[in-house]
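Our consortium's second objective concerns turning raw sequence data into structural hypotheses that experimental partners can test. To show how far this objective has progressed, the report includes one record in full. It was chosen at random from the queue rather than selected for favorable results. The single chain below, 212 residues long, was entered without modification.
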Amino acid sequence: MKKTLLAFALPLVLTSQVAMAEVTLKMPGNFEILAAQHLEIKKATKTVALPEGDQLVLVRFDSPTNPHSTGQSMGYVSSQPILIRFSANDGEVVELLAPRVDTQQDVKRFAKNPSFELTDTAGKSVSFDSEKVVVSGSPLMANYNDILAAQIAPSEIQTLPQPAVITASSQSVSTVDINQLTPAQADQLMKDLYQDANKKRRKEFIRWALGL
């Protein structure tokens, strides 16, 4: 009987210990997590739980063009993905803090060159490295887990790699469920696809849109 109880209890204890060995990474309202080294992220999110230790994470600034608009009719402004590298201990909450942006001009300016800091549970600064990863093509079609994976091998050489240009179309792309997109995101996707199309396809699209 004791052996049976031990067989049940031991996996529970080990599971509990593994569950405790987590680092929580949190974003403010105008930032999002795109991908993480130790976790497959299917959709951009604001908070993730990661195993303790060294971290490689892709984040980006993502804000309504008018930060005070409730309708968000003017769409969104996003930065290029930013690769950040930091270390955190078991149980820590690491939070990204960014300056406040209040105007449309501030949003566009900040998206070109985002700045931020990381803090731990006690509010102390967390040391980190960061670099911009330039991705061409539609942001909605990019597979950020694959893009991060392409950065991990070089990053194992003690220093972060030099900024790289990655073409989203050359990566594996994720399937986009149109029904899950907001009207603003659907409009942005249509614009991105139109801008990426050649002249012939653009003419065909216009003829289709006009019912010709």
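The partners drew two points from this record. The helical segments are 2-20, 104-112, 144-155, 183-196, 199-210. The CA atoms of residues 22 and 51 lie 5 Å apart. Both points have been shared with the crystallography group to help prioritize constructs.
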